[in-house]
Design a protein that fits this description.
alpha/beta, N-utilizing Substance Protein B Homolog, Chain A, 4 domains, seven-stranded mixed sheet, four-stranded antiparallel sheet, 49% helix, binds S-adenosylmethionine, SAM-dependent_MTases_sf
Length: 442
């Protein structure tokens, strides 16, 4: 059940507050929590758009906003949680939403805190927000939140709202300059990417039509990119009709870099999810014979995609790619010559689309993921035909899951040959970061 809106707050802020609490306190996925609340609350399209912007924006800047507000609070941990969250939302509006006048953000926030908590807390909220406003440009300067004795890593982590351990790992593996670029890019919004279904006869005509619709900003092959935040209404019908699919430009790019035109069949997409890459490959005539996942729901979604796209699905297998195929499995009878392992990962390459990921990951959780990835690599490499290709892919920026994972694999398997290693360039305009390694079995 969607919780009722808090009537003491304007509708967009009320729903945003509930979604943020679902994400931060209950560990829900941001888009799922937002979809659920927006579908169950009666709010206008305009409020819905503002709510979406507030949720995504606040999650992107939470650490920075808390540090800025902390400059004017003796002990922010003593604030009631909800009061701290509304103050954060109001601060986000003041700092990043030019179209909302500062007084309006202060008014709704202070009014709410007074009504829900106390006059005293309302006065404190007013003072803190006014002080933030007085900071002017200084509120956009990282040095303004530096505390005495604070390390550079802690400062960067707070400013970019990232866990300190990931900033440390990036610094160690990639150096300060690259880390700064990656952190800054993680705050940006991702552009919208779509893929035209090339099995559709007039596919290229459609690409050309979209390229000239005055809304798109780039086309590559069958991919079309729209600016971040845009939702051209006409695309909805095309998606329903299977003419196009949502797929980020970065995801399309990593697949191109994996050189699918050279892959021999049969191909096994061993972590297929809902089939994003499966159908991108099938549309290009790559012989994806098997697709598997441990999630029944996702596997079902993958099969349903076939209907939408008017294509034949691959043989779907509910199984773990980290364990040998069961006796009599079709993988035994017809061993794959190419395996795409788009493995479960920490997702730090997709922060522009999923800013909540940074709050859900722990170092222990990542160690578990690294072990699963290792097991998937070991198992799939042994299932692979001699001379076959293992395509190891992640959507993260984390040396333990990318470069170090592949290096360790090569140390365990000196017979394997690393034919290509690639990651999305740091200055990519696509807003997401992928990694791929092509490993040949002798
Ligand atoms: C990065 S997602 C795959 C995304 C998908 N390839 C796409 O392009 O849409 C990783 C997938 O691996 C699945 N998974 C997790 N552990 C697995 C395992 N041991 N074997 C197979 N799949 C697994 C997850 O359910 C998830 O769907």
């Amino acid at each position: 059940m969607a919780r009722r809106k808090d009537s003491a707050l304007p509708p967009a802020r009320s729903v945003a507050l509930e979604v943020i609490s679902q994400v931060l306190d209950k560990g829900r996925d941001v888009q799922a929590a937002l979809d659920y609340q927006l579908n169950n609350q009666k709010i206008t399209a305009q409020d819905s758009a503002l709510c979406t912007e507030l949720v995504y924006g606040f999650l992107r800047y939470k650490g920075r906003i808390e540090a800025l507000l902390g400059l004017f609070l003796k002990d922010s941990s003593k604030l009631p949680k909800k009061a701290a969250s509304v103050m954060g939302l109001a601060a986000y509006e003041m700092l990043y939403l030019d179209r909302i006048p500062v007084y309006a953000s202060v008014d709704w926030c202070v009014g709410y805190v007074k009504k829900r908590f106390s006059l005293g807390l309302g006065k404190l909220t007013n003072a803190v927000l006014r002080n933030l406003d007085r900071m002017g440009e200084k509120a956009h300067d990282m040095e303004s939140i530096r505390k005495e004795g604070m390390s550079d890593i802690a400062l960067l982590a707070a400013w970019h709202s990232m866990p300190e351990w990931i900033v440390s790992a990036w610094m160690e593996a990639y150096g300060e300059e690259r880390t700064q670029v990656l952190l800054a890019n993680a705050q940006k919004h991702a552009p919208l990417g779509i893929r035209v279904n090339q099995t559709f006869e007039a596919g290229m005509d459609l690409v050309n039509e979209l390229a000239n619709d005055g809304k798109s900003i780039e086309t590559i092959g069958y991919g079309v990119m729209y600016p971040a935040g845009s939702q051209p209404a006409e695309l909805k019908t095309m998606i329903n009709d299977g003419l196009i699919s949502r797929q980020s430009m970065a995801s399309q790019e990593v697949l191109r870099e994996a050189l699918p035109e050279t892959w021999e069949g049969p191909v096994w997409d061993c972590c297929c999810g809902r089939g994003g890459k499966t159908y991108a490959l099938l549309e290009q005539d790559v012989d994806v014979t098997f697709a598997s996942d441990t999630s029944r729901k996702r596997l079902l979604g993958m099969r349903e995609e076939a209907e939408r796209l008017a294509m034949y699905p691959p043989e779907s297998l509910l199984m773990s790619a980290a364990e040998p195929p069961k006796k009599g499995s079709p993988l035994e009878e017809n061993p794959p010559a190419t395996i795409l392992a788009d493995v479960p990962c920490s997702g730090f390459g997709t922060l522009s689309r999923r800013p909540d990921v940074r709050y859900h990951r722990t170092t222990e959780g990542i160690s578990d993921l690294v072990e699963v990835q290792k097991a998937i690599m070991e198992n799939t490499f042994s299932v692979l035909k001699d001379g076959g290709l293992l395509v190891y892919m992640t959507c993260t920026i984390n040396p333990d899951e990318n470069e170090k994972q592949v290096q360790a694999f090569l140390e365990r398997h000196p017979e394997a040959k690393l034919e290509k290693e690639w990651h999305t360039p740091d200055d990519s305009p696509y807003g997401e970061y992928f990694y791929v390694a092509l490993l040949r079995k002798p």
